[in-house]
Design goal:
The complex is a heterodimer of chains A (566) and B (352). Chain A is α/β, with parallel strands linked by helices and 566 residues long. Chain A has 21 helices and 20 strands. In chain A, strands 6-7-8-3-9-10 form a 6-stranded mixed beta sheet, with helices on both faces. A 6-stranded mixed beta sheet of chain A has the order 16-17-18-13-19-20, sandwiched between helices. Chain A has a 4-stranded antiparallel beta sheet with strand order 2-1-4-5, with helices on one face. In chain A, strand 7, helix 8 and strand 8 form a beta-alpha-beta unit. In chain A, 53% of the residues are buried. Chain B has a single domain, classed as MetI-like fold (Orthogonal Bundle). A two-stranded antiparallel sheet of chain B has the order 1-2. Chain B has 352 residues and is mainly α. Classes of the chains: A alpha/beta (566), B mainly alpha (352). Chains A and B meet through strand 1, strand 4, helix 2, helix 11 and helix 13 of A and helix 9, helix 10 and helix 15 of B.
Chain lengths: 566, 352
């Protein structure tokens, strides 16, 4: 094995998918090389072909795909390499795991829930090697130890559900590493994880080339992760690789306009306040008036089943939102932030404390009494793909609130107002005739905002409105949101896990951790001088899209968490 | 896709431009249920669908135009030349021979399709409306309504459908078996058996759709339950119905035939019915008279087969994972096609 030989050499790869709507060219002429011990990041937005490119390295494309070109993968057994695209199924099976392995996005679905994790790793070993079961057992425990699972002898007998998300991802990585492949393909390995856990998994992935001698192909849309991990970066757009450079060059001097647009769109903590990205937004909060939402000792418990205790999602939380104020609610998954939003909208019953929304106490109130309040509340959901009835046109969807509250008699009657709303969110009025699936994610989310604003609400609840969107689209939607808020002066509860996003839109930020409010204050207070250790850790874990700065931050993160530096 | 990047300075790609034009929905009839599937299908699935549609179409034509097609009436025993005679082999006067009762087999097979179609329509209408309504109610509101209905549905599953049909036949006809009571007996028993199936399917769909974000968004808007159910839930939950409807159809035919075969069916003088003819032809089989049993039997088998083929292929076509598509690329790059073919057909091919 000469060191100069690339681990994988993709030459002029074309992939075409057969779909109901005709052929789709997913990848057009991509060429890539990964040198031994190198981390190559493929970045791009959804639909750019990055996952398809990486999957074709393992021959993991569905039957509807047609490929041309060559994917030369170096064999682990000798010095030669094989063209994955021309291998038979049997030969492909040999290659997978031995020469290259894959780490999937969602660790909870990549592991089989009915077998112990150790068993699953052993199975992979037995399929590829002539080891005895005992030897394989030992190798599995060993690899679990190396990826940082504490007490691996005992934990190997645990089932996947007994591990946390981050540990599961470690196990998936162990499974990929156990056969000592020359290449690990990591498809969005940290997207499903919380920011603090993401930092730990990135730390592990960072050790792969040095400790395990594997190269890594990292697929991600997160420029912060790229800055943290990658040596080389390939930017994909519309099935083509538009730019390929080493990480420092790419971030400091992006050549292609798309790369520049992509980098500009990435939100940064503190970016808006320094005036570097968008003009600082002027607060329209009216603190003298009675608050729109006031929570005192708010507690929400989900009932348990048959004599088990209920789960307390929100635990004695106090906060208030003044008219015209944007409160950013930040926390990791399971912190109770969505539950609070749903409670305000009356979708989840309040079980303790008091919550008053627009002057009405919502605890134990009937659906009938809630209706007049609902008129004054708008809600933007996380996933624009599912928050529209797929059988109604956009105009009919946006007209729904108007029809339900008797402002218009039917969708046709509401059309002038709908057109007005669509134009306010920068959608052409012809989009009203389309069905939701005919719009892109960003367009749908704008339509969703139009629907939420249809009745000119006093309060808007936005539950992770941009987390399902690509960065460039996210930037547009956030900009629109900030403008609409300044114009219409509605109060808003903005729920997000992304500190940088919250920083752009919020006047004040509240940080939730395990259902408790750990810190609350203005954006500057919380983000520039966090007092609570959890907030500090959250901020330190956030990768910034700048390789040099991120290297500094990683050091700070290591000292904060006590992780061993190598 | 990425049509939102307005700041992106290079000219947009053809896809982006296409996304900005108002999409072409095609002529309206292209989106009708079966036409749409027929247009998207290829290969074996298309063959299945077309065969099924052809058989079913044939069946419906026979049923509707029976008076024009059938040479004689279902209960006709004689014509100008006198009696037909019993158990006559196929001849030019009686293309498929005559039965033991002296009826023309061909005429009874053709008229029988009319009875079968009536049974199907009655069974479908009764069970569809009741099942969908109950399923919607149960799935949307949950609670005690749901629990009670599910228990009742489960209990009905435990009954053999033919036994129910016999009971219904006796209760409805009161011993007199004419066309109306015979068809209604089959339809009612099928309804009792199929209401729980529609109920189950619709209920599970409704439960799934109830948790979708667009239902939540309707609730946040303040829509009433009735509006949410009719406008948002119902139309989204009936996608799986075509399959279960075809099952329902074939089951209706089989039950009607089963009733006839057991002697609870329709008198030969009031309507033609395939099951009854089969029942009467049992003795003929041992004495080498094949035409009296083969043709009514064939009619039952073909009709059920046709309807099932339609249902199966509709089901496959509705599922993107089961749907076969045209190979990508068409005539593009033959070598690329060869490469994928070799992978798909498992041909051992030595790596370079």
């Amino acid at each position: 094995m000469t060191a100069e030989d690339p681990v994988v050499d993709v030459r002029d790869l074309h992939v075409t998918f057969a779909t109901d709507g005709g052929d789709v060219l997913a990848v057009r002429g991509a060429s890539l090389r990964v040198q031994p011990g190198e981390v190559l990041a493929i970045v791009g937005e959804s639909g750019s072909g990055k996952t398809v490119t990486a999957r074709s390295i393992l021959g993991l494309l569905p039957e509807t795909a047609t490929t041309s070109g060559a994917v030369l993968l170096r064999r682990n057994t000798d010095t030669g390499s094989s063209d994955v695209l021309s291998l038979s199924q049997n030969a492909l099976r040999e290659v997978r795991g031995r020469d290259a392995a894959m780490v999937f996005q969602e660790p909870s679905t990549a592991l089989n829930p009915v077998y112990p994790v150790g068993w699953q790793i052993v199975e992979g070993l037995l399929a590829h090697t002539s080891l005895s079961r005992a030897e394989a057992q030992k190798a599995a425990v060993d690899v679990l130890r190396r990826v940082g699972i504490p007490d691996p002898e005992a934990r190997a007998k645990y089932y996947p559900h007994q591990f946390s998300g981050g540990q599961k991802q470690r196990i998936v990585i162990a499974q990929a590493l156990v056969l000592d492949p020359g290449l690990v393909i990591a498809d969005e390995p940290t997207t499903a994880l919380d920011v603090t856990v993401q930092a730990e998994i990135l730390e592990l992935l960072r050790r792969l080339p040095t400790e395990f001698g594997t190269s890594v192909v990292l697929i991600t849309h997160n420029m912060g992760v790229v800055a943290d991990l990658a040596d080389q970066v390939a930017v994909m757009y519309n099935g083509e690789i538009v730019e390929q450079a080493d990480v420092r060059t790419l971030f400091s001097a992006p050549k292609h306009p798309y790369t520049r647009a992509l980098l500009d769109a990435v939100p940064r903590v503190g970016g808006s306040r320094q005036g570097a990205q968008t003009t600082a937004r002027a607060s329209v909060a009216d603190r003298e008036a009675a608050p729109v939402v006031e929570a005192k000792g708010l507690t929400i418990t989900y009932p348990g089943r048959l004599r088990t205790a209920g789960f307390t999602a929100v635990d004695h939380v106090d906060f208030a939102i003044a008219p015209g104020e944007v409160l950013g609610l930040v926390g990791e998954s399971g912190s109770g932030k969505t539950t609070i939003g749903r409670a305000i909208a009356g979708l989840t019953p309040v079980t303790g404390g008091s919550l008053s929304v627009l002057g009405t106490k919502v605890r134990g109130v009937s659906e009938r009494k809630l209706r007049p309040i609902r008129r004054k509340i708008g809600f933007v959901f996380q996933d624009p793909a599912t928050s529209f009835n797929p059988l109604l046109t956009i105009a009919q969807c946006v007209a729904e609130p108007l029809v339900v509250h008797g402002v218009a008699s039917d969708a046709g009657d509401a059309r002038p107002r709908v057109d007005e709303l669509l134009e306010a969110v920068q959608l052409d009025r012809s989009y009203g005739e389309r069905y939701p699936h005919e719009l892109s994610g960003g367009q749908r989310q704008r339509a969703s905002l139009a629907r939420a604003l249809a009745l000119d609400p006093d309060l808007l609840i936005a539950d992770e409105p941009t987390s399902a969107l690509d960065v460039s689209v996210q930037a547009k939607v956030l900009e629109l949101f900030v403008r609409m808020q300044a114009e219409l002066k509605f109060a808003c509860l903005f729920i997000s896990h992304d500190l940088a996003v919250v920083d752009i839109v919020a006047d004040r930020i509240a940080v939730l951790h395990h259902g408790k409010l750990v810190e609350e204050g203005t954006s500057a207070q919380v983000l520039d001088a966090p007092r609570d250790p959890y907030t500090q850790r959250l901020l330190a874990s956030l990768p910034v899209p700048d390789p040099a700065e991120q290297a500094e931050r990683r050091k700070a993160w290591r000292t904060l968490t006590g992780a061993s530096a190598n | 896709m990425t049509a939102d990047i307005e700041s992106f300075t290079t000219p947009p790609s053809p896809e982006d431009l296409a996304a900005d034009l108002t999409p072409d929905h095609g002529p309206r009839w292209h989106r009708l249920p079966i036409v749409k599937q027929l247009r998207t299908s290829v290969g074996l699935q298309r063959g299945m669908l077309i065969t099924g549609l052809a058989i079913t179409g044939m069946f419906i034509i026979l049923a509707v135009f029976a008076p024009l097609i059938a040479p004689y009436s279902w209960a006709q025993l004689r014509d100008a030349n006198g009696l037909f005679g019993s158990q006559q082999p196929p001849s030019s006067a009686h293309l498929l021979g005559t039965t033991v009762g002296g009826y023309d087999v061909l005429s009874r097979v053709i008229w029988g399709s009319r009875t079968a179609l009536l049974a199907i329509v009655a069974a479908l209408v009764l069970s569809l409306f009741l099942g969908v309504f109950l399923g919607l109610l149960s799935g949307y509101f949950g609670g005690w309504i749901d629990r009670t209905l599910v228990v009742v549905a489960d209990a009905i599953y435990a009954f053999p459908s033919l036994l129910l049909a016999i009971l219904a036949a006796i209760a409805i006809s009161g011993g007199q078996s004419n066309l109306k009571s015979g068809v209604l007996a089959a339809a009612v028993s099928i309804t009792v058996v199929f209401v729980p199936q529609y109920f189950r399917v619709i209920r599970s769909e409704v439960v799934r759709i109830k948790s979708e974000a667009f239902i939540e968004s309707a609730r946040v808007i303040g829509s009433s339950s009735a509006r949410i159910m009719t406008r948002h839930v119902l139309r989204n939950s009936i996608r799986t119905l075509p399959l279960i409807m075809t099952l329902n159809c074939s089951e209706a035919i089989l039950t009607l035939a089963g009733l006839g075969f057991l002697g609870f069916g329709i008198e030969p003088s009031s309507a033609a019915e395939w099951g009854y003819d089969l029942f009467k032809s049992i003795e003929d089989v041992t004495s080498g008279i094949w035409w009296t049993s083969v043709f009514p039997g064939l009619a039952i088998v073909l009709t059920v087969l046709g309807i099932t083929l339609v249902g199966e292929s509709l089901n496959d076509l509705a599922d993107p994972r089961l749907r076969i598509r045209r190979a990508a690329g068409g005539k593009r790059s033959k070598q690329a096609l060869d490469a994928t073919n070799s992978v798909q057909t498992n041909q051992p091919e030595e790596a370079r």
